[in-house]
Amino acid sequence: MSRLKISIVAFAILSLSGAVAASQESPELPADLPPKGSVKLSQLISETEGRAGFHAIKSISYSRGEYEVVYYMMDGAEVRLNFDVKTGAVKPPKSGGLFGG
């Protein structure tokens, strides 16, 4: 093998090993995701499903440190719960007029 080929192979191996090392570092999470150490979403789903009169979950979303879970009760009523992402505690409904603000 010529020296040029050996140099190219060595460079490729070193480049790949650097990429592997970089991929094993803990990447920063995007700002719109729950922070590390947050309550597991599966725990909040389980808690919601265990509520009296629960029928089905309609949607789950995350925004500004809260999970919002929207579900239906057996009688057809729609319920919205906001859970604190760090503690899992249900937060009181937002107030501030007709549309919550």
Task: Kindly describe this structure.
This is PepSY domain-containing protein. Residues 1-21 form the signal peptide. Keywords: Signal. With 101 residues, the protein is an alpha+beta fold. The protein is built from 2 helices and 4 strands, in the order ααββββ. Strands 1-2-3-4 form a 4-stranded antiparallel sheet, covered by helices on one side. A hairpin with a 5-residue loop joins strand 3 and strand 4 (90-91). The longest helix has 22 residues, at 3-24. The mean pLDDT is 81.
What's the level 1 CATH class of the domain at 34-91?
A: Alpha Beta
What proportion of the residues form beta strands (DSSP E)? 25-35%
Cα-to-Cα separation, first versus last residue: 71 Å
Largest sheet: 4 strands, antiparallel
Task: Describe the secondary structure blueprint for this structure.
Elements: H1 3-24, H2 41-49, E1 54-63, E2 66-73, E3 78-84, E4 90-91
Antiparallel strand pairs: 1-2, 2-3, 3-4
What's this entry about, in short?
By secondary structure, the protein is an alpha+beta fold. The protein has helices at 3-24, 41-49, and strands at residues 54-63, 66-73, 78-84, 90-91. It has a domain at 34-91: Nuclear Transport Factor 2, Chain: A (Roll), CATH 3.10.450.
What key attributes describe this structure?
27% strand; alpha+beta; PepSY domain-containing protein; elongated; 101 residues; Nuclear Transport Factor 2, Chain: A; signal
